[in-house]
Amino acid sequence: MPEIDVRLVDVTKRFGPDVVAVDHINLEVRDGEFFSLLGPSGCGKTTTLRMIGGFEEPTSGLIELQGQDVTWLPPYRRNVNTVFQNYALFPHLSIYENVAFGLRRRKVPDQEVRRRVSEMLELVELPGYEKRRPSQLSGGQAQRVALARALINRPAVLLLDEPLGALDLKLRKQMQIELKRIQQEVGITFIYVTHDQEEAMTMSDRIAVMNRGHYEQLGTPEELYERPTTRFVAGFLGVSNMLRGERLGEDGGYAVVQVVGGARVRVPRERLNGRAAVEVGVRPEKIRLLSAGAPAAEQLNRLDGRILDASYMGVSTQYIVRVADEANLTVYEQNVERTEEGSLHRPGEMVSLAWTPEHTFVIHEGTGGDAGNAG
Amino acid sequence: MSRTSHLLRRFLTPYLLLAPGLLWLIVFFIFPTVQMFLYSVSTGSVDFGYRLTWSFAAFTQIPQEFSRQFANSILYGTLATILTFLISYPLAYFIAFRGGRYKNVILFLVIAPFFTSFLIRTISWQIILGDNGPVIGLIHTVDVFHQVPQNFTFMGEPIAVVSGLVYNFLPFMTLPLYVALERIDLRLIEAAQDLYAGPWRPRGWIYGALGGAALGGLVGFGISWSVPAFAAAGAVLGTLIGGFFVSESFLRVTFPLSLPGVFAGSLLTFIPALGDYVNATLLGSPKTQMIGNVIQARFLESNDYPTASALSFVLMVGIIIAVMAYARVLGTEDLSGGVTI
Ligand SMILES: Nc1ncnc2c1ncn2[C@@H]1O[C@H](COP(=O)(O)OP(=O)(O)OP(=O)(O)O)[C@@H](O)[C@H]1O
Ligand SMILES: [Mg+2]
Question: Quick check: A201 and A353 in contact, CB under 8 A?
Answer without folding.
Answer: no
